[in-house]
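**Sequence, structure tokens**
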Amino acid sequence: MLPVKFVLNWKFQSVQSGFFVAADRGYFADEGIDITIDQGNGSSAAVKNVASGAYDAGFGDINALIRIAAETPAEAPIGVYMIYNQPPFVIVTKSGSGITKPADLIGKTLGAPASDAAYKMFPAFAKLAGIDASKVSWSHMKPALREQMLMRGEVDAVSGYNTTIWFGAKGMGVDPKKDLTFISFADHGMDIYSNSVVVSQKLYKDHPDKVAGLVRAINKGFMDVLADPELAVTSLKKRAPLAKDDIERDRFKTVFDLLVFSDEMKKIGLGAIDPVRMKRSIGIVVDAFNLSATPDISQVFDTKFLPPQETRLVN
């Protein structure tokens, strides 16, 4: 058995249940993998933890991986199984604010934590949307205060992950569907990928058979959950007994509807990428962060470990 340390994107949540089910049902063990799954502190942090060698694999932001591949390619993890096919980056305003499109942001004050990925991507979004980023002001706050400051009117809009803001607002008693307006980066040319399973260079080079096994096990786990979504809650509660069933059911459905179940994914299957789109999204990230090099797709993602397409297709 090969010990594999795996880091998640965040605290234990229903959306990660495919990993839990793969562990609980012995799918990793069947592949000769002794898996340890740890909670994470963000999608970018997960990728950095794999790059540093602290973890062998993880679930994190492919865009953070692209940055590492451009700057320190020898350390860059490799994406092997794409899960969040759609980007979660959004600008959110209160309904009735008069802000419904990127041009409406000119002269306004936006809020975001300084580490927010959508905030960091904003200059590239502005360029693609045809607006002058220098004419938008920013105010920074702690992540926990983002939705509060928006609802109190202390900022005109906020940036972040659609799912994070959605559930943050719900937790305050706000109905995001009715009370908030979402401007998606993806709707304005920023058609990039998001969270993927990534593996370290060491695991990739030294144990390619185990990488294939890891991907097979994860695919089985997620397909099981999609066939029986209640597993999303039951597998989570083995690890987070205080999780609220209704919130986690809602989270699983919302995240998968927004970030996973795209037309592209339904065509090519869970885990796969469209190489043309990936090449374009690498270019967008390189442009957004003024990176000194443009990584090749082979430095970012390797599809050779994917199980057959028919085992990854979702109705």
User: Anything to note?
Assistant: Residues 208-227 form the longest helix (20 residues). The chain has 15 helices and ten strands. The mean pLDDT is 96. Residues 68 and 121 are 16 Å apart (CA to CA).
